[in-house]
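User: Fold this; tokens only.

Assistant: Input:
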Amino acid sequence: MPPSRSSSTESRNCENDPAGDPGLAPEALAGAYTAPYNGAAISTQQFLLHLLSHLNYDLGQIDYLRRITSDAGAIELATL
């Protein structure tokens, strides 16, 4: 069972924590990721950026496929 968080931790928000999540301290982001990536040790921050890049690419591919399979065109920001 995961440890419970104290009320002081729950009251923290993005303004108080530059990482945006009380569980991701700057020291944890700078530390080595638990599994090697392509045989090399990288920081947790680098691995999270890598995952974010993949997500961004995949979302672009989904949008491209949506555009060519329908005549809807681009999504306007107001509808997001």
